[in-house]
Amino acid sequence: MTQAAPNSGTLDDPNARSTEFVAVQGGGDTTSAATLLVTAYIVMWALLLGFVFLSWRRQGRVEARLSELEKSLASGEPKHNAHE
Amino acid sequence: MRFATVRSRHYVHSVTGQKDKLFYALLAATAGIFVYLISFVFLKAPVAQLQAGGLAQKIFYFHVPAAYAMYLCGTVCCIASAMYLARPSDARDAVARAGAECAVVFGAMMLSSGPLWAKKAWGVYWTWDPRLTTTLLSVLVYVSVVVLRAFAGNGEAERKFASALGVLGTVNLPIIHYSVLKWGGNHPTVIGQGGGGLKHPAMVHALLVGFVAMTLLAGLLLWARARLALAVSRIARLEERAIASGELDY
Predict the structure, then answer these.
(1) pLDDT class for A14, splitting at 50, 70, 90?
(2) DSSP chain B
(3) Do B239 and A40 touch (CB under 8 A)?
(4) Is A6 within the bounds of a domain?
């Protein structure tokens, strides 16, 4: 197994920068499973709540359109533009 | 005549009141079961082996039911679309549209949670695995239905084209299911043919509760969106009639 040397250099030391990439086993993955799990749940709920919010807004537009239609029909005056 | 109108109004109010009660009961049941599911998954369900993602494997209890809910909504979209193509009606169009919209939402839930799990289990967020690719294709078909209905108008031709796309999207669903068996790939085959199953009773319980929760949620969303789409169609018809009779200016 090839193991990468620990990075002891800094940005000020040009000799410490990577000049090649080598495959390692068990050394690279530092992503926390808990973070991924919580992120997945947050993203899923955000998508769902976003959909419910969009539905709510669309419902509001439908109600506004219905009110306009009712007002126009009640007044009997052809002033309202149906496609506004 | 007056009596008939009053009776008719009373009947309509009675029917919508019953429907509302059923809707709120379904909403309460869905909320309750989700609270139970989340607490069970986080507190009781055991952590799986590291190869399966360890703690991240718990995404499975939402990811798989979301996929199932997408299949469910896609099937609803397909049936309503086929019925619309056979005999067009506003109600069938509304259900087909709702099915496509909900399939996109559940598809997005699945496609966002899966890569986060894959990052831990496979080391990458995405790979062009047969199941992942066919799933993405199917979700994109439903997205095209939603975009078409949102931006291309509400005419007969647009509705029929969207219905044809809705049927096409669902034809792809069995391919997603069997792709992993036919063509292999990274995607696990834990449940069903060739799979070893869930080796702990709490895992099985969490998954079953997840299926029930997502079924209820899919039912709720389908109902609400279909009702909304139908209301939009009815208002459009009323506007057309009002314009035709000169009561409304175009």
Answers:
(1) low
(2) -HHHHHHHHHHHHHHHHHHHHHHHHHHHHHHHHHHHHHHHHHHTSPP--GGGTGGGGGGHHHHHHHHHHHHHHHHHHHHHHHHHHHS--HHHHHHHHHHHHHHHHHHHHHHHHHHHHHHHHTSSS----HHHHHHHHHHHHHHHHHHHHHHS-S-HHHHHHHHHHHHHHHHHHHHHHHHHHHH--SS---SSTT----SSHHHHHHHHHHHHHHHHHHHHHHHHHHHHHHHHHHHHHHHHHHHHTTSSB-
(3) no
(4) no
Given a contact cutoff of 8 angstroms between Cβ atoms, the answer to whether B159 and B138 are in contact is no
> Residue B87's domain spans which residues?
2-244
Q: Within a domain: residue A83?
A: no
Q: What is the ipTM of this complex?
A: 0.78
Would residue B249 count as lying in a domain? no
Please indicate whether, in this complex, the C-beta atoms of B63 and A48 are within 8 angstroms of each other. no
For chain B, which residues score pLDDT lower than 50?
1-6, 12
Our count of domains for chain B comes to 1
Q: What is the pLDDT of residues A24-63, one digit of tens each?
A: 555 555 678 888 889 999 999 999 999 999 998 988 898 8
Residue A62: which of B108, B120, B235 has the nearest Cβ? B235
**CA-based nearest residue in chain B for residue A36:** B116
pTM here is 0.79
What CATH number does residue B33 fall under? 1.20.120
Which residues are registered as beta bridge partners of B249? A81
Range of the domain at A26: 14-75
Minimum distance, in Å, between the CA of residue B62 and any CA atom of chain A: 8
